[in-house]
Amino acid sequence: MQWFLGTLTALHVVPALFWAGTTFGMARMAGEGAERMAFPQIGSAAVTIVVGAVLWHFTHPAGVRTSSDTVLAVGAASAVVAAGLQASALPAVRRLQRGEGDLQAQRRRIALIQRIGGVLIVVAAICMVTFRRF
Length: 134
Prior knowledge:
Layout: H1 2-28, H2 34-59, H3 67-87, H4 90-98, H5 103-130
């Protein structure tokens, strides 16, 4: 079982690092590169969230909730909200790819969403790193 949980943890952490990196990169670069990175970013967010849910299932018994579980749940909720928010920018990314509309306005929208998503990802990371301390 130990190798299984280790493998799941790696499958959770590696895409999470890509997700966070692309979030901070696009936020810092004012949406530049969104045409290439937004869809892989959402894919890595989805993998991170699904594998995180599987990890939760195997490591948190049903019906038993502690303050640590609450901290971890806040982090998970922050990650889910970040992914949903970032997914809401995909239509603007498609317009950028097609060269339609006001490109600067779309980049500003994408950058704002990435910045908010970045804050939520930081909250998630803090919760996941510290949840055993509560």
